[in-house]
Design goal:
The protein is an alpha/beta fold and about 270 residues long. Helix content is about 35%, strand content about 25%. It has helices spanning about 10-20, 25-30, 35-45, 65-70, 85-95, 140-145, 145-150, 165-170, 175-180, 205-210, 235-240, 240-255, and strands spanning about 1-5, 55-60, 75-80, 105, 120-125, 150-160, 190-195, 195-200, 215-225, 265-274. The strands form two sheets. It has an eight-stranded mixed beta sheet, with helices on both faces. The protein is globular, with a radius of gyration of 18 Å.
Length: about 270
């Protein structure tokens, strides 16, 4: 493992929060049906564009669920994260699954990718489940992508947009703060994990495409948990299996259509380097 650590105060707080949660992270989410649905959607999206045998730079890799999936499907993954706890859990998984030849790790902030020891170049830069929402310097992160990718390489990012239909509907339950938190987040919206508070920011797809348009072409945008409820609506899939399957079918049809692709809990965006 190579260690490269520099961060600002926001990143320090996020690192502390996720390190505190790292030991129980998989236990909290591995049995969640909708989390499983989200992972499959993201992986299917990547696999439609990327052939096995390629190399992946994963940002905010967490405990390595996606790194191991891609390693088991013929990819080499360099998994990075700023959380020491998450990296420790990932290294345990690599050893347990015998994937030391397929997955490498590096403790590094995605705002300091220019300091990566393993610069690739890669076939894919991948960030799942809103890790990139933990910075107000996303422009800086995006600017570093070009030099880390091979010609024709791509990026796939899973990001929280500025509007979520499901959250907006919470106004009818009187949860005004949650319903409107994305609207008033220019200075960062408070989040907390394991008692540690940190800020997150929300970015629409246009923010990303505008900053990468000179060197990248858009491949696709999909809404994620636009029709299917977000995973924090606990037990929905188990309590209402018929409704859940109906919503899944409809999201599959609507995921790439306007406006559904930009009003989910997340969106998946892929772009290819020219």
């Amino acid at each position: 493992m190579v260690e490269t650590v520099k961060s600002n105060r926001t990143e320090e707080l996020a690192e502390a929060a996720f390190t505190s949660q790292s030991g129980i992270f998989d236990e909290l989410y591995s049995g969640n049906t909708i989390v499983g649905y989200k992972r499959k959607r993201v992986r299917d999206h990547v696999l439609q564009y990327l052939k096995p045998g390629g190399s992946i730079l994963e940002l905010n890799s967490g405990t390595g669920e996606d790194a191991l999936f891609f390693a088991q499907n013929g990819f080499k993954v360099h998994a990075t994260d700023i959380s020491t706890g998450m990296q420790a859990q990932l290294r345990k998984k690599i050893a347990m699954n015998g994937k030391q030849d397929k997955v490498s790790t590096e403790l590094c902030s995605y705002t300091h990718l220019h300091e990566l020891k393993n610069k690739g170049p890669y076939n894919l830069i991948f960030s799942n489940f809103a890790g990139l929402n933990c910075t107000d310097e996303l422009d800086k992160v995006l600017a570093s992508f070009n030099d880390l990718l091979k010609p024709g390489g791509m990026i796939t990012l899973v990001v929280l947009p500025k509007f979520c239909l499901w959250e907006a509907l919470l106004v009818f339950k009187g949860k005004f703060r949650t319903a409107f938190r994305r609207f008033f987040s220019s200075e960062g919206s408070k989040a907390h994990i394991e008692g540690t508070y940190f800020k997150c920011w929300y970015y629409n797809p246009s923010y990303i495409t505008k900053r990468l348009k000179d060197k990248f072409d858009l491949l696709g945008i999909e809404g994620l948990c636009t029709v299917v409820p977000p995973s924090y609506i606990e037990g929905f899939a188990e309590k209402h299996p018929t409704a859940y399957n109906f919503l899944k079918r409809n999201e599959d049809w609507l995921k790439s259509r306007w406006p559904w692709r930009v009003i989910g809990d997340y969106y998946i965006i892929s772009m290819r380097k020219r």
